Amino acid sequence: MLRKSFLAFLVVFSLFCLPLANLATAAERPFTFGLLLVGPYNDHGYSQAHYEGGQYVEKIIPGTKMIYIDKVNPADRKGVTIPQLVDELVEKGAKLIIANSDDMKDGIREAAAQHLDIHFVHISGDDVLTGKAPKNLVNLFGRMEYGKMMAGFVAALTTKTGKIGYLGPLENEETKRLANSCYLGARYAWQKVLKKNPNDLKFDVKWIGFWFNIPGVTADPTQVGQNFFNSGYDVVVSGIDTTEAVTVASQEAKKGKKVWAIPYDYVGACGNNSVCLGVPYFNWGPGYVELVRKSMQNEWKSEWIWLGPYWKDINDANKTTVGFVEGPAMIPSSKKALAAFRSDLGSGIINLYKGPLAYQDGSIFLKPGEVATDKQIWYTQKLLKGMTGQSSAK
Predict the structure, then answer these.
(1) Tens-digit pLDDT profile for residues 123-169
(2) Considering only CA atoms, which of 94, 146, 114 is closest in space to residue 311?
(3) For the chain, which domains are there?
């Protein structure tokens, strides 16, 4: 009888303890999220900004773990598809997957449809806007237009020749609207601050063909930068993921040239380069934290998110998505002018996307007094009148 009672006790005890054991295991198991990075995780540019955004999530949200696959591009991973890489991350336990490049759009949509129990974020895409996104896919991007306006503004205040070069990646709606924003900021500084004729400002765009250099496939950004400086351009603003613009400017400065550069994407892109005027950068941490929390708390919904600067302090790492760090080459008068310009952008006193604005070919972008909608800016088709360079791929 005693033995039977003891056995019954063990059965009840084991049934009671089993859920507790499962809960303990679940509590100890991290929430794993995965990143697909188009470039190297330590590129001092776009991909590193995303990688450090993931590290920020691990720091802010206890129990999270980042895994990643970098160099996800046609040159480094020939014949490997985005869905295959997603499968690899899912097998390693990822419950949320972030694809960080526009050219991953089709692949990440396909993968999301195959893994409806996994949450997906596509950076810079528009599948939610177009209705192509499955319910588990979110689009996220930053309003870098403001960062580029500041870059152009500083470039125009600095140039001595009135010739600004723009080192562009591939040609799409994103890259053209960012180049346009840079030009609008430069034109505003040239005309409104310096009181010069806007027709005397030269702003030329050269595209290399991808987000960064792929030998034998793209134009060499180092050579493009050198060509700018050798033909009278004294400020080069970068639109590519990596730091060639500021590297070339430093090399030219050592030869005695008065030249400057503005890199892109990453808060630390200036490095110790004395020719660096500043850098507009993405800060992905706050946006990532919000989405990871929604995923963990089962509050996920398919949405298109376009986050801007935190205007009270655009370099607040806990709040801003788009920032601008002043570089060692920026002089005090330019810093003062930039602060006023930044304040007026944030308050809405200045809106550079207000008509009249025309494209290169003379077609109307915005009528007089017309203020661009988000969609008009997002789906920019061409470079603006006043700029030189190719508006569309030949």
Answers:
(1) 999 999 999 999 999 999 999 999 999 999 999 999 999 999 999 99
(2) 146
(3) 26-142+285-307 (3.40.50.2300), 145-281+325-389 (3.40.50.2300)
